[in-house]
Amino acid sequence: MEILDNLALGFSVAFSFQNLMYALLGCMLGTLIGVLPGIGPVATIAMLLPITFHLPPVASLIMLAGIYYGASYGGSTTSILVNLPGEAASVVTCLDGYQMARRGRAGAALSISAVGSFFAGTVGTIIIVLFAEPLTRMAQKFGPADYCALMALGLVAAVVLASGSVLKAIAMVFLGLLFGLVGTDVNTGAQRFTFDIPELSDGIDFAPIAMGLFGIAEIVVNLERHLTRTGTIKVGSLWPTREETRRSIPAILRGTMLGAALGVLPGGGPTLGAFSAYTLEKKLSKNPGEFGKGAVEGVAAPEAANNAAAQTSFIPMLTLGIPSNAVMALMVGAMIIQGIQPGPEVMTKKPDLFWGMIASMWIGNAMLVVINLPMIGMWVKLLTVPYRFLAPAILLFCCIGAYSLQNSTFHVIQVAGFGVLGYIFSRLGCEGAPFLLGLVLGPQMEEYFRRAMLLSRGDAMVFLQRPISLGLLITTALLLVLMALPSIKKARKEAFQEEG
Amino acid sequence: MNRFLSKDFLSGLMFIGFGLIALYFGQKLALGTTVRMGPGYVPRMLALIMMGLGVVICLVALVTNAEPAEKPKWKPITLVTIGIICFALLFERAGLLPALVVLILIASLAGEEFNLKEVLANMVVLAVVCTLVFKVGLGMNITILRGVW
């Protein structure tokens, strides 16, 4: 019954007029930016971060969650209509979605993907509600050493998902941790790496880093790629045929289950969910030859899995404070800026925020079906705006957004600097996600590490003596060993090749 | 192709470089003891591990056939960066309008196609939108044109 009470509290928060408006606004803006080709959810959230900062905490998180879902939906739309995935997770949707569009079934593909995503989102929300309490209770037993080990596991697991070299991804985590330490040392008050710049004494602001690393760098890479358009876009009827419906329902169910399960894993998330769901459907299908030529299951299952995983990946972030992917790292950053330290205390100390956010996730999903289907004509129009108009406009909004954070042009300069760094990363094939995870976890991890060492009187064995910490560290070590095994290495390489 | 110009070798160098920067600027920070760590302990530890990883990445890149780094296209990244810096410099001194005009002009030059008429139209539209949204709508405290509004 407690769950129902919590949900009632959540819905009472989420259904306030103000919060409904922020959820709607978030979904609209998210879709608006997400539908622009070549811009995925991470870049979208990074660019829109500043507009949420001046809101109250609940409203700001509700809006950010809305932006996230909107951006994912927008990404599916571009994948189906113009074959340009904004993120890795919608690469699979391109395979069959675009083929359906070419056969004149774009409308059906869009509505199946929207309804499937909505169903998956609903299931995902229910799973969050069921798991949030027990996990939180478990996390409250954690000591500093355990937390440190948990973060190590989270970081390593996230690395497994970064494509390319594991070594480089781990080095990126360390670089992110180092950047996270810039500012005043909490324990001693010493200034670290601030170069006597007063703006840096509170640490490097998270938003300019995210905007530069993901937003600006992505725009520049798109400018280089010189995105080309494919002819006219016809959506056609939104109604799927009876045959399409019959085939997509089981696919949506399977995709939802798989995605929800994979989303909870540290380092899991939408991409893993979507790819696994596609592979599963292909294996189960009576005629696998249809896949890649416009099989409706190839759209329904990955889209459902994508959204279910997007939803359940909130679980480790909300209960343990451990982000499992770049989007969650952005959410953690946004929470810290709002003065909320993500972790098990959020649920007990700020139940309205916790449950309100969960309830608004479901509302956001419902809104998106409404925004996406009837208004599809508007989004299609937006798709036809050439990139040479969009790129300068996005840059401009980023600049104004960065300035608005603290009314300081120093932030705008920081955006430019991190844009260059992000560009270098992408040229050298270094993933930005591990860096971002290290960055948000850096200060906390140092804090827990120092506290654990202080409690144990400088004995590093404490990490191996506590059962929870030991278990987590063994898991971490196993993951690292697994990554080094030749057969896994090969399979991983192949998986990422399919992706790229 | 020079084997030293592979993506992996260069990123290894980048990690070593960042590690050196962290060590150099962190040398004055007190190390402390393992029980009571000073502000310099964790940064130094992280920097050393990262440099170690950087060295391994470089060595692996030299031994294996690493993917060569693509030649960077300097135009977009340089122009975009200059555009943003100009915006930052002009925004408070001259106001939103001049900063916007300069940013849009430079950013438009970064693309492959440049059509002055289109760029001008883009500027006008964005100037109107930004003024309406940020100044009138959100009531942000920004100057549109220094000395005028």
Could you walk me through the main structural features you see in this protein, from its secondary elements to its overall organization?
The complex is a heterodimer of chains A (500) and B (149). With 500 residues, chain A is mainly alpha-helical. Chain A has helices spanning 2-14, 17-34, 41-52, 57-82, 91-102, 106-139, 144-161, 166-180, 206-225, 242-264, 270-284, 297-312, 314-320, 326-337, 345-349, 351-372, 376-383, 387-406, 409-427, 432-455, 462-465, 467-484, 486-499; strands at 183-184, 191-192. Chain A has one domain (2-499). Chain A is built from 23 helices and 2 strands. Chain A has a two-stranded antiparallel sheet with strand order 1-2. In chain A, helix 9 runs antiparallel to helix 18. The model of chain B has no long low-confidence stretch (mean pLDDT 86). Chain B is 67% helix and 0% strand. Chain B has 2 domains: 3-63; 74-137, no CATH class. Chain B is built from 5 helices and no strands. Chain B is flat. Chain B is mainly α and 149 residues long. At the A-B interface, helix 8, helix 9, helix 18, helix 19 and helix 20 of A face helix 1, helix 2, helix 3, helix 4 and helix 5 of B.
Extended strand count of chain A = 2
Span between termini of chain A: 47 Å
Rg estimate of chain A, integer Å? 22 Å
> What structural class do you assign from the helix and strand content of chain A?
mainly alpha
Largest sheet of chain A: 2 strands, antiparallel
Tally of individual domains of chain B? 2
What is the averaged pLDDT score of chain A? 82
Q: Element order, helices and strands of chain B?
A: HHHHH
Unreliable stretches of chain A:
none
* Average residue pLDDT of chain B: 86
How many structural domains are formed by the residues of chain A?
1
- By secondary-structure content and strand pairing, the structural class of chain B works out as mainly alpha
The share of residues in extended strands of chain A comes to under 5%
Order of helices and strands of chain A: HHHHHHHHEEHHHHHHHHHHHHHHH
Number of helices of chain B: 5
Biggest interface, chains and residue tallies: A-B, 59 and 70 residues
